[in-house]
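Weekly structure sync, notes
Attendees: PL (lead), two postdocs, one rotation student
Agenda item 3: pending single-chain targets
PL asked that the sequence for the first pending target be pasted directly into the notes so everyone works from the same version. It is reproduced below exactly as submitted, 97 residues in total.
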Amino acid sequence: MGRRRKAREFCLQILFQLEFCADSPSKVWEEFWSEKRVLPETKEYTEWLVKGIIDQKEVIDDLIQSVSQNWELERMSLVDRNILRLAVFELLEEAHL
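Predicted structure, written out during the meeting:
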């Protein structure tokens, strides 16, 4: 499996965990990575994705909401919502590169 694909998968798992967990993000990171053996490049890309999505969450959510006809973000499943956040973030960042 490609490194970026694996990083996206990890990103979605971490975002999901962060939404459900009362623990601090640093504790979630620590626990998540303690269970995984990954290449440094995959971990680095995963962390870049997660941090970027968290930092730009308001902008990303506003963009998703602006094109979501008859759907409020809160009504979307956590998985769907985070897949959309990941996709929008990557598209926004690709546009900046």
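Discussion points:
- The CA atoms of residues 8 and 87 lie 10 Å apart.
- The mean pLDDT is 91.
Action: rotation student to compare against the earlier draft before next sync.
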